[in-house]
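We append the chain.
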Amino acid sequence: MGSRWRVLPRIISQSGLRNSASVIWLHGSGDTGPGILEWINMVWKEEFKFPHIRLIFPSADPVPYTPNNGQVSTVWFDRQKISPFVPENLSSIDASATKLNELIQAEVDGGIPLSRIIIGGFSMGGAMALHQVYRYQKQVAGCFALSSFLNEGSLVYKEVENIQNKSSLPPLFQCHGTRDELVLFDWGTETFKTLTNLGISGEFQEFNIFHEFNKKELTLLREWILTKLPPD
């Protein structure tokens, strides 16, 4: 029996007659798909959409979350604490990856090739996207990570290191606030430096903001998405 989402994905239909691409956007810890969609629209000042792209905002299942004293929260994976200096909880990460793979396969079954799909996210969602793309879905069009980081010695790094043809890997778009007090700016830059040193092509943007995003960041992300997923 396939896994079942407790909170169904929130989908925004494209404004054109049909969609030819999809973007899957993963929320941060404790948030939901509809929650981050509401935040994006609030920052954007109108509905954030594309003429030919379907935006999908899934929600993580509620699970006990160690940094929240074990209380149940909508998170993509559990971890010892919010820090790159602890081991990854791979069983927790892979449980969400399995469900997200089903969501991605549903898009493929619906006629959207992997080469026309981008996966990304904010904070924990960005970290989950990095695992999803560079460990499981290496044929997608790209990955974005906003205010995110990977743990030291992450399995993502080891996976990328073992890939022979690095030029075939999806490009990365990463942003971070220099005043971020939850996910430190240095954690984000170190993640980007490690991934690009391993051979991933990427773009990094910094902003004078806290653990958040602003309209300028969304504008640059939107432009980047359109370069990877132009109208067909």
Observations:
- The chain has one domain: 10-228.
- The chain has six helices and nine strands.
